[in-house]
Input
Amino acid sequence: MTPILTYSEDGELACELVAAAREISPSAEVAAVVLGDGDVSSLSESGCDVVCRVAGAAPVPEVAASAVAEVARQRATRMVLVGSTKDGKEVAGRLSVLLGCPAATECSRVGLESGRLRVERMAFGGRVSTVASMPGDSFVVALRPRAYARLGGAAKAGVTEVVVPAARRSVSVESVAGQPPSALDLTRADRIVSVGRGLKKKEDLELIRSLAGAMDASIGCSRPLSADLGWLGEESHIGLTGIQVKPKLYLAVGISGQLQHLAGIRDAGVVVAINNDKTAPIFSSCDYGVVGDLYQVVPELVAQLSAAKGREKGY
Ligand SMILES: Cc1cc2nc3c(=O)[nH]c(=O)nc-3n(C[C@H](O)[C@H](O)[C@H](O)COP(=O)(O)OP(=O)(O)OC[C@H]3O[C@@H](n4cnc5c(N)ncnc54)[C@H](O)[C@@H]3O)c2cc1C
Output
């Protein structure tokens, strides 16, 4: 079997891709690509055989795809796993063209069956999970965050510097700025308080922040709050066209529960909803529901949680 190449701009997801590659073929060489100043140290302990560092390559899709394709050519592999993040899906599409092979995005599982690559991915807004079989031995698969757990106790892999020709770019990168930590944490958060159009004004986000604080939770939202109103950043929007999350607890506040939103929380553990309309669709998709006005329920919840925390600390 040819080597398997992995790449993600997200350090934790990059390690999860290595675990997926190992599962596809325990004996194939797994080479993990890191661009520019990416985290080499964590990746080298993820279970890969070698880390290929491409110095000077910015982690933007156009540059990343070109660099990863070049590493694939140099290492004579046409099997590439990337992360199914917003940027990763663009990288997957570009790699598919550059390497001339099929690509599948939003995958939750990947494996070989009778010599053919088999991927599981969601379709119809997350309503169904489909299984697709990819022909040939060349492919690009984009895997969702937390679909695989990173391997523990792996030996440290060596790092090799790879020189790739400068990509012809239609976009030039002036600077790369990090996202706020809360945004980056959302796909990995164990608890999320998510807010929707039930909130009347931007200032009322303070109410949601105090609830999230009392629950040690991260804050997400439905699309209208970020895309239409701009009350929260684009990276906070959960759903079909946003991010998919996998928390142990998801609390939806003033969210109706449209299909496009639910597509982002299908892997959530316990889902709780607060909504003043007992016929809201979210009540058909949650484990616990509170029919009530969020402006009454949320402050009460914050008070109860704070009191419980106080009791724990013996106040
Ligand atoms: C192609 C496409 C892609 C999309 N992708 C996404 C996506 O990725 N993510 C996403 O979220 N949406 C997405 N949408 C939009 C989606 O269809 C819904 O419009 C959106 O999810 C609704 O957001 P909401 O639940 O916050 O608002 P609404 O549907 O307006 O619901 C607000 C809810 O708040 C409740 N409420 C009102 N006042 C209170 C109160 N005082 N207390 C308690 N509850 C109250 C109401 O009963 C209602 O159920 C997409 C749409 C399209 C067409």
Remarks:
- The chain has two domains: 4-161, 181-312.
